[in-house]
Every structure is written in structure tokens, then in C-alpha cells.
Write a structure and sequence with these properties.
With 100 residues, this protein is mostly helical. It has 5 helices and no strands. This is Ribbon-helix-helix protein CopG domain-containing protein. It comes from Streptomyces ehimensis.
Length: 100
């Protein structure tokens, strides 16, 4: 096991994390470990996007890359889930037209 350390945060954040841990019947330390393990780094997000584009048969262009943050924002804010699909489809269609 790793050596324990401290993280400075506001009381509100600490209380929220404690509540989340209690709701999941886990400790605050285990909750933080879980959250840290599942979040991707910028490099990890780009790699995942490249793999997804490949699986969908989409060329991973700068335009597709730029559409990524829009999709993530829409997904996290709960707005426009279908919008991201049309971005990918229109981008793929544009790529297909250009390659002809």
C-alpha cells in the first residue's frame, strides 16, 4: 500500500467526496483511487478517439479531433447527445467525398 498523503480542498468538496464514498459503501481513499484510475489523461483521450475513429471507419483528421471536445461537453452537460453522431457522420461523409 502507498504511503498516505494529504490533499487540500474546500470543506464543501471534502464533504461531497465523503458523501459519495458513504453512498458507495467505500472509503474516501478508495473512492479517490477509483476516480483517478478511470479518468484518462489527454494522451489517453486522444488514443481512445483514434481507436474509435478507426473502428467506425473514419479517418482521424484535425476536423474530427476538433469535434471531440464539443461532443464531450455536450455529453457531460446533458445537451445534444445526438449532435455528436451527426458531426461524426458528416465528417466521415466529407472525407469519403474528398477521397473519390
Amino acid at each position: 500500500m502507498s504511503k498516505p498523503t494529504s490533499i487540500k480542498t474546500s470543506e464543501a468538496v471534502r464533504d461531497r467526496l465523503r458523501t459519495l464514498a458513504e453512498d458507495r459503501s467505500t472509503t474516501l481513499t478508495e473512492l479517490l483511487e477509483e476516480l483517478a484510475a478511470r479518468e484518462l489523461t489527454a494522451a489517453g483521450r486522444e488514443q481512445r478517439a483514434r481507436e474509435a475513429a478507426h473502428e467506425l471507419g473514419i479517418e482521424y483528421t484535425e476536423r474530427v479531433e476538433q469535434a471531440g471536445p464539443t461532443r464531450r461537453h455536450a455529453t457531460r452537460s446533458g445537451t445534444g447527445g445526438g449532435r455528436s453522431t451527426s458531426i461524426c457522420r458528416s465528417t466521415a461523409a466529407g472525407s469519403a467525398r474528398r477521397s473519390r
